[in-house]
Amino acid sequence: xxxxxxxxxxxxxxxxxxxxxxxxxxxxxxxxxxxxxxxxxxxxxxxxxxxxxxxxxxxxxxxxxxxxxxxxxxxxxxxxxxxxxxxxxxxxxxxxxxxxxxxxxxxxxxxxxxxxxxxxxxxxxxxxxxxxxxxxxxxxxxxxxxxxxxxxxxxxxxxxxxxxxxxxxxxxxxxxxxxxxxxxxxxxxxxxxxxxxxxxxxxxxxxxxxxxxxxxxxxxxxxxxxxxxxxxxxxxxxxxxxxxxxxxxxxxxxxxxxxxxxxxxxxxxxxxxxxxxxxxxxxxxxxxxxxxxxxxxxxxxxxxxxxxxxxxxxxxxxxxxxxxxxxxxxxxxxxxxxxxxxxxxxxxxxxxxxxxxxxxxxxxxxxxxxxxxxxxxxxxxxxxxxxxxxxxxxxxxxxxxxxxx
Length: 405
What we know:
alpha+beta; 10 helices; globular
Protein backbone atom coordinates (compact mmCIF):
# COMPACT_ATOMS: atom_id res chain seq x y z
CA UNK A 1 0.00 0.00 0.00
CA UNK A 2 1.15 3.55 -0.57
CA UNK A 3 -0.05 7.05 0.22
CA UNK A 4 -3.51 7.16 1.79
CA UNK A 5 -5.01 4.45 -0.44
CA UNK A 6 -6.46 1.51 1.49
CA UNK A 7 -6.21 3.17 4.89
CA UNK A 8 -9.29 3.86 7.01
CA UNK A 9 -7.39 6.52 8.94
CA UNK A 10 -3.95 7.99 9.46
CA UNK A 11 -3.77 7.50 13.24
CA UNK A 12 -5.67 4.84 15.17
CA UNK A 13 -5.88 5.41 18.95
CA UNK A 14 -6.80 2.46 21.16
CA UNK A 15 -8.40 3.71 24.37
CA UNK A 16 -11.02 6.38 24.98
CA UNK A 17 -9.87 7.49 28.40
CA UNK A 18 -8.62 11.01 29.04
CA UNK A 19 -5.11 10.33 27.65
CA UNK A 20 -6.30 8.71 24.42
CA UNK A 21 -8.88 11.44 23.83
CA UNK A 22 -6.35 14.16 24.65
CA UNK A 23 -4.03 12.62 22.05
CA UNK A 24 -6.78 12.70 19.40
CA UNK A 25 -7.63 16.28 20.40
CA UNK A 26 -3.96 17.32 20.16
CA UNK A 27 -3.56 15.79 16.70
CA UNK A 28 -6.60 17.66 15.37
CA UNK A 29 -5.00 20.91 16.52
CA UNK A 30 -1.43 20.20 15.47
CA UNK A 31 -2.28 18.69 12.07
CA UNK A 32 -5.82 19.54 10.92
CA UNK A 33 -7.08 17.11 8.33
CA UNK A 34 -5.27 14.11 9.83
CA UNK A 35 -7.75 11.23 9.82
CA UNK A 36 -8.14 9.86 13.35
CA UNK A 37 -10.12 6.93 14.73
CA UNK A 38 -10.40 6.25 18.47
CA UNK A 39 -11.55 2.76 19.52
CA UNK A 40 -12.96 2.39 23.03
CA UNK A 41 -14.29 -0.93 24.33
CA UNK A 42 -16.79 0.65 26.74
CA UNK A 43 -20.08 2.34 25.72
CA UNK A 44 -18.73 5.81 26.54
CA UNK A 45 -15.54 7.75 27.30
CA UNK A 46 -13.48 7.66 30.49
CA UNK A 47 -15.18 4.67 32.12
CA UNK A 48 -12.16 3.41 34.09
CA UNK A 49 -9.27 5.43 35.60
CA UNK A 50 -10.59 8.72 34.19
CA UNK A 51 -14.00 8.29 35.78
CA UNK A 52 -12.92 6.59 39.02
CA UNK A 53 -10.63 9.04 40.78
CA UNK A 54 -10.80 11.80 43.37
CA UNK A 55 -11.01 14.58 40.77
CA UNK A 56 -7.90 16.34 42.05
CA UNK A 57 -5.95 18.64 39.73
CA UNK A 58 -2.49 17.92 41.13
CA UNK A 59 0.11 20.67 41.48
CA UNK A 60 3.14 18.48 40.68
CA UNK A 61 4.82 18.92 44.05
CA UNK A 62 5.50 15.21 44.65
CA UNK A 63 7.40 14.40 41.50
CA UNK A 64 11.14 14.27 40.89
CA UNK A 65 12.33 17.51 39.23
CA UNK A 66 12.89 16.96 35.53
CA UNK A 67 10.69 13.84 35.37
CA UNK A 68 7.78 13.65 32.94
CA UNK A 69 5.39 13.66 35.89
CA UNK A 70 6.88 16.87 37.29
CA UNK A 71 7.01 18.66 33.94
CA UNK A 72 3.62 17.55 32.69
CA UNK A 73 1.74 17.89 35.99
CA UNK A 74 2.92 21.43 36.71
CA UNK A 75 2.17 22.49 33.14
CA UNK A 76 -0.96 20.36 32.93
CA UNK A 77 -2.58 21.68 36.10
CA UNK A 78 -2.62 25.24 34.75
CA UNK A 79 -3.80 24.02 31.35
CA UNK A 80 -6.56 21.90 32.90
CA UNK A 81 -7.92 24.90 34.82
CA UNK A 82 -7.87 26.94 31.62
CA UNK A 83 -9.55 24.12 29.62
CA UNK A 84 -12.31 23.77 32.24
CA UNK A 85 -12.88 27.54 32.23
CA UNK A 86 -12.98 27.65 28.41
CA UNK A 87 -15.61 24.93 28.14
CA UNK A 88 -17.64 25.76 31.25
CA UNK A 89 -16.66 22.61 33.14
CA UNK A 90 -17.08 22.89 36.91
CA UNK A 91 -13.74 23.30 38.64
CA UNK A 92 -12.13 25.14 41.55
CA UNK A 93 -8.56 25.97 42.55
CA UNK A 94 -8.78 25.16 46.25
CA UNK A 95 -5.18 24.66 47.32
CA UNK A 96 -4.34 21.83 49.72
CA UNK A 97 -2.55 21.04 52.94
CA UNK A 98 0.07 18.31 53.30
CA UNK A 99 0.24 17.60 57.03
CA UNK A 100 2.93 15.93 59.14
CA UNK A 101 1.42 14.25 62.20
CA UNK A 102 4.61 12.53 63.47
CA UNK A 103 8.14 13.82 64.07
CA UNK A 104 9.67 11.28 61.68
CA UNK A 105 7.60 12.86 58.87
CA UNK A 106 9.10 16.33 59.32
CA UNK A 107 12.24 15.72 57.22
CA UNK A 108 10.07 14.33 54.39
CA UNK A 109 7.79 17.35 54.64
CA UNK A 110 10.79 19.67 54.37
CA UNK A 111 12.03 17.69 51.36
CA UNK A 112 8.64 18.31 49.71
CA UNK A 113 9.08 22.04 50.29
CA UNK A 114 12.38 21.89 48.44
CA UNK A 115 10.95 19.75 45.68
CA UNK A 116 8.01 22.11 45.24
CA UNK A 117 10.35 25.07 44.87
CA UNK A 118 12.49 23.17 42.35
CA UNK A 119 9.34 22.44 40.36
CA UNK A 120 8.29 26.10 40.46
CA UNK A 121 5.28 25.52 42.72
CA UNK A 122 4.22 28.11 45.34
CA UNK A 123 4.53 26.50 48.78
CA UNK A 124 3.84 28.02 52.20
CA UNK A 125 5.08 26.38 55.41
CA UNK A 126 2.64 26.28 58.35
CA UNK A 127 2.89 25.62 62.07
CA UNK A 128 0.16 23.96 64.18
CA UNK A 129 -1.79 27.19 64.80
CA UNK A 130 -1.71 28.12 61.10
CA UNK A 131 -3.01 24.66 60.15
CA UNK A 132 -6.20 25.30 62.09
CA UNK A 133 -6.66 28.64 60.31
CA UNK A 134 -7.03 26.72 57.04
CA UNK A 135 -8.67 23.59 58.49
CA UNK A 136 -10.12 24.07 62.00
CA UNK A 137 -10.59 20.32 62.59
CA UNK A 138 -7.21 19.16 61.26
CA UNK A 139 -4.30 18.59 63.63
CA UNK A 140 -0.60 18.26 62.87
CA UNK A 141 2.93 19.21 63.89
CA UNK A 142 3.57 21.13 60.68
CA UNK A 143 2.15 21.42 57.17
CA UNK A 144 2.67 22.96 53.79
CA UNK A 145 0.00 24.78 51.84
CA UNK A 146 0.11 24.26 48.06
CA UNK A 147 -1.87 26.96 46.32
CA UNK A 148 -2.19 25.55 42.79
CA UNK A 149 -4.05 22.30 43.59
CA UNK A 150 -7.67 22.15 42.47
CA UNK A 151 -10.61 19.88 41.71
CA UNK A 152 -12.73 19.15 38.66
CA UNK A 153 -14.73 16.36 37.02
CA UNK A 154 -12.31 14.53 34.74
CA UNK A 155 -15.09 12.40 33.21
CA UNK A 156 -16.69 15.60 31.91
CA UNK A 157 -13.29 16.75 30.64
CA UNK A 158 -12.98 13.46 28.70
CA UNK A 159 -16.44 13.95 27.21
CA UNK A 160 -15.45 17.44 26.07
CA UNK A 161 -12.19 16.21 24.55
CA UNK A 162 -14.15 13.58 22.60
CA UNK A 163 -16.70 16.15 21.45
CA UNK A 164 -14.00 18.63 20.38
CA UNK A 165 -12.01 15.94 18.55
CA UNK A 166 -15.12 14.74 16.73
CA UNK A 167 -16.05 18.32 15.80
CA UNK A 168 -12.61 18.56 14.17
CA UNK A 169 -13.20 15.38 12.15
CA UNK A 170 -12.05 12.53 14.38
CA UNK A 171 -14.18 9.39 14.71
CA UNK A 172 -14.65 8.09 18.27
CA UNK A 173 -16.17 4.61 18.28
CA UNK A 174 -17.52 2.97 21.42
CA UNK A 175 -18.24 -0.71 22.14
CA UNK A 176 -15.18 -1.45 19.99
CA UNK A 177 -12.87 -3.77 21.90
CA UNK A 178 -9.63 -4.56 20.08
CA UNK A 179 -8.97 -8.30 19.80
CA UNK A 180 -6.15 -8.48 17.22
CA UNK A 181 -3.39 -6.24 15.87
CA UNK A 182 -1.57 -7.00 12.62
CA UNK A 183 1.42 -4.72 12.09
CA UNK A 184 3.16 -4.76 8.73
CA UNK A 185 5.74 -2.63 6.94
CA UNK A 186 2.96 -0.64 5.28
CA UNK A 187 0.90 0.07 8.42
CA UNK A 188 -1.32 -1.50 11.05
CA UNK A 189 -4.63 -3.37 10.85
CA UNK A 190 -6.74 -3.83 13.97
CA UNK A 191 -9.73 -6.12 14.42
CA UNK A 192 -12.45 -5.49 17.00
CA UNK A 193 -14.70 -7.96 18.80
CA UNK A 194 -17.48 -7.21 16.30
CA UNK A 195 -15.24 -8.23 13.41
CA UNK A 196 -14.63 -4.69 12.15
CA UNK A 197 -11.16 -4.13 10.68
CA UNK A 198 -9.55 -0.67 10.82
CA UNK A 199 -6.37 0.02 8.84
CA UNK A 200 -4.08 2.87 9.85
CA UNK A 201 -0.68 4.30 9.08
CA UNK A 202 0.16 4.71 12.77
CA UNK A 203 -1.10 3.11 15.99
CA UNK A 204 -1.32 4.75 19.43
CA UNK A 205 -1.87 2.50 22.45
CA UNK A 206 -3.58 4.40 25.29
CA UNK A 207 -5.41 1.38 26.66
CA UNK A 208 -4.69 2.09 30.35
CA UNK A 209 -5.48 -1.01 32.37
CA UNK A 210 -5.09 -3.10 29.18
CA UNK A 211 -2.06 -1.31 27.67
CA UNK A 212 0.45 -4.13 28.18
CA UNK A 213 -1.99 -6.61 26.62
CA UNK A 214 -2.42 -4.36 23.59
CA UNK A 215 1.37 -4.01 23.29
CA UNK A 216 1.71 -7.79 23.20
CA UNK A 217 -1.09 -8.02 20.58
CA UNK A 218 1.04 -5.69 18.45
CA UNK A 219 4.00 -8.05 18.83
CA UNK A 220 5.97 -5.91 21.29
CA UNK A 221 7.44 -6.93 24.64
CA UNK A 222 6.58 -3.99 26.89
CA UNK A 223 9.05 -5.10 29.60
CA UNK A 224 6.40 -4.52 32.26
CA UNK A 225 2.99 -5.72 33.35
CA UNK A 226 0.03 -3.76 34.56
CA UNK A 227 -0.67 -4.85 38.13
CA UNK A 228 -4.06 -3.41 39.12
CA UNK A 229 -4.39 -1.80 42.55
CA UNK A 230 -7.87 -0.99 43.81
CA UNK A 231 -8.28 2.31 45.61
CA UNK A 232 -11.17 2.15 48.06
CA UNK A 233 -12.92 5.34 49.18
CA UNK A 234 -15.34 6.40 51.85
CA UNK A 235 -17.51 9.50 51.84
CA UNK A 236 -17.65 11.75 54.89
CA UNK A 237 -21.13 11.87 56.43
CA UNK A 238 -20.22 15.24 57.98
CA UNK A 239 -18.56 17.08 55.06
CA UNK A 240 -18.39 20.26 57.12
CA UNK A 241 -15.43 18.78 59.00
CA UNK A 242 -13.18 19.58 56.01
CA UNK A 243 -12.96 22.78 54.00
CA UNK A 244 -10.72 21.63 51.16
CA UNK A 245 -8.01 19.05 50.48
CA UNK A 246 -5.91 17.49 53.24
CA UNK A 247 -3.11 14.97 52.60
CA UNK A 248 -0.62 13.10 54.77
CA UNK A 249 3.10 13.17 54.04
CA UNK A 250 3.60 10.39 51.44
CA UNK A 251 6.02 7.49 51.72
CA UNK A 252 8.62 8.12 48.99
CA UNK A 253 9.19 4.37 48.58
CA UNK A 254 5.65 3.83 47.31
CA UNK A 255 3.84 5.66 44.47
CA UNK A 256 0.61 6.10 46.45
CA UNK A 257 -0.24 9.22 48.43
CA UNK A 258 -1.89 7.67 51.47
CA UNK A 259 -5.40 8.17 52.84
CA UNK A 260 -6.41 11.78 52.26
CA UNK A 261 -9.49 14.01 52.38
CA UNK A 262 -10.83 15.60 49.21
CA UNK A 263 -13.73 18.03 48.96
CA UNK A 264 -14.92 17.46 45.41
CA UNK A 265 -16.53 19.87 43.01
CA UNK A 266 -19.95 18.55 44.18
CA UNK A 267 -19.22 19.46 47.82
CA UNK A 268 -18.93 15.84 48.95
CA UNK A 269 -15.78 14.89 50.86
CA UNK A 270 -14.10 11.65 49.80
CA UNK A 271 -11.74 9.87 52.17
CA UNK A 272 -9.08 7.57 50.73
CA UNK A 273 -7.95 5.79 48.80
CA UNK A 274 -6.10 2.89 50.26
CA UNK A 275 -4.32 0.64 47.75
CA UNK A 276 -4.86 -3.12 47.62
CA UNK A 277 -4.16 -5.57 44.79
CA UNK A 278 -7.25 -6.02 42.62
CA UNK A 279 -8.21 -9.53 41.51
CA UNK A 280 -9.08 -8.32 38.01
CA UNK A 281 -7.93 -5.51 35.72
CA UNK A 282 -11.29 -3.86 36.30
CA UNK A 283 -11.80 -5.28 39.78
CA UNK A 284 -13.71 -2.55 41.59
CA UNK A 285 -14.65 -4.87 44.49
CA UNK A 286 -13.29 -8.00 46.20
CA UNK A 287 -16.02 -10.02 44.43
CA UNK A 288 -14.73 -9.02 40.96
CA UNK A 289 -12.35 -11.84 40.08
CA UNK A 290 -11.03 -12.82 36.65
CA UNK A 291 -8.90 -15.95 37.05
CA UNK A 292 -6.96 -15.50 33.79
CA UNK A 293 -6.03 -11.90 34.67
CA UNK A 294 -5.13 -12.86 38.23
CA UNK A 295 -2.95 -15.67 36.89
CA UNK A 296 -1.23 -13.15 34.62
CA UNK A 297 -0.43 -10.95 37.62
CA UNK A 298 0.80 -13.88 39.71
CA UNK A 299 2.85 -15.23 36.81
CA UNK A 300 4.83 -12.00 36.43
CA UNK A 301 8.12 -12.19 38.38
CA UNK A 302 7.92 -8.51 39.24
CA UNK A 303 4.69 -9.06 41.20
CA UNK A 304 6.41 -11.36 43.70
CA UNK A 305 9.45 -9.12 43.97
CA UNK A 306 7.19 -6.15 44.68
CA UNK A 307 5.28 -8.15 47.30
CA UNK A 308 8.51 -9.16 49.08
CA UNK A 309 9.80 -5.60 49.03
CA UNK A 310 6.61 -3.90 50.23
CA UNK A 311 4.80 -6.60 52.22
CA UNK A 312 4.71 -4.53 55.43
CA UNK A 313 3.15 -1.52 53.66
CA UNK A 314 0.75 -3.84 51.81
CA UNK A 315 -0.37 -5.53 55.02
CA UNK A 316 -1.42 -2.17 56.44
CA UNK A 317 -3.36 -1.34 53.28
CA UNK A 318 -5.09 -4.73 53.39
CA UNK A 319 -6.03 -4.26 57.03
CA UNK A 320 -7.63 -0.89 56.22
CA UNK A 321 -9.50 -2.50 53.33
CA UNK A 322 -10.98 -5.23 55.52
CA UNK A 323 -11.62 -3.10 58.62
CA UNK A 324 -13.54 0.16 58.59
CA UNK A 325 -12.29 0.78 62.12
CA UNK A 326 -8.66 0.53 60.96
CA UNK A 327 -9.44 2.89 58.06
CA UNK A 328 -11.04 5.40 60.45
CA UNK A 329 -8.03 5.18 62.77
CA UNK A 330 -5.78 6.19 59.86
CA UNK A 331 -8.05 9.15 59.07
CA UNK A 332 -8.05 10.32 62.70
CA UNK A 333 -4.31 10.98 62.49
CA UNK A 334 -5.28 13.99 60.36
CA UNK A 335 -8.84 14.58 61.48
CA UNK A 336 -9.35 13.52 65.12
CA UNK A 337 -13.07 14.38 65.11
CA UNK A 338 -13.93 11.59 62.65
CA UNK A 339 -15.98 8.75 64.08
CA UNK A 340 -16.28 5.32 62.48
CA UNK A 341 -19.93 6.12 61.72
CA UNK A 342 -18.87 9.21 59.72
CA UNK A 343 -17.49 6.98 56.95
CA UNK A 344 -19.89 5.78 54.25
CA UNK A 345 -18.64 3.45 51.48
CA UNK A 346 -18.12 5.17 48.12
CA UNK A 347 -17.20 3.99 44.63
CA UNK A 348 -13.72 2.51 44.23
CA UNK A 349 -11.17 3.06 41.48
CA UNK A 350 -8.46 0.85 39.99
CA UNK A 351 -4.96 2.17 39.32
CA UNK A 352 -3.10 0.73 36.32
CA UNK A 353 0.36 0.43 37.87
CA UNK A 354 3.24 -0.71 35.65
CA UNK A 355 5.53 -3.17 37.44
CA UNK A 356 8.91 -3.94 35.89
CA UNK A 357 10.40 -7.44 35.81
CA UNK A 358 12.71 -6.65 38.76
CA UNK A 359 9.73 -5.67 40.92
CA UNK A 360 10.19 -1.91 40.56
CA UNK A 361 6.95 0.06 40.54
CA UNK A 362 7.35 2.41 37.57
CA UNK A 363 7.50 5.86 39.09
CA UNK A 364 7.24 7.99 35.95
CA UNK A 365 5.03 8.02 32.90
CA UNK A 366 6.26 5.46 30.37
CA UNK A 367 5.90 6.27 26.67
CA UNK A 368 7.62 3.83 24.33
CA UNK A 369 7.89 3.64 20.56
CA UNK A 370 7.90 0.62 18.25
CA UNK A 371 7.56 0.39 14.46
CA UNK A 372 4.57 2.54 13.45
CA UNK A 373 3.42 2.51 17.07
CA UNK A 374 3.45 4.66 20.21
CA UNK A 375 2.68 2.85 23.48
CA UNK A 376 1.65 4.69 26.66
CA UNK A 377 2.58 2.03 29.23
CA UNK A 378 2.33 3.81 32.57
CA UNK A 379 -0.08 6.69 33.04
CA UNK A 380 -1.68 6.51 36.50
CA UNK A 381 -2.18 9.60 38.68
CA UNK A 382 -1.38 12.41 37.90
CA UNK A 383 -2.11 11.49 34.27
CA UNK A 384 -5.58 13.08 34.32
CA UNK A 385 -4.06 16.37 35.52
CA UNK A 386 -1.26 16.04 32.96
CA UNK A 387 -3.44 14.72 30.13
CA UNK A 388 -3.19 17.78 27.86
CA UNK A 389 0.64 17.88 27.71
CA UNK A 390 0.80 14.06 27.61
CA UNK A 391 -1.59 14.12 24.67
CA UNK A 392 0.57 16.66 22.84
CA UNK A 393 3.70 14.56 23.35
CA UNK A 394 2.04 11.36 22.15
CA UNK A 395 0.54 13.28 19.21
CA UNK A 396 4.00 14.62 18.32
CA UNK A 397 5.39 11.10 18.22
CA UNK A 398 2.47 9.75 16.18
CA UNK A 399 2.77 12.57 13.65
CA UNK A 400 6.51 11.82 13.38
CA UNK A 401 5.57 8.26 12.37
CA UNK A 402 3.35 9.68 9.61
CA UNK A 403 6.08 12.07 8.46
CA UNK A 404 8.56 9.19 8.21
CA UNK A 405 6.23 7.52 5.67
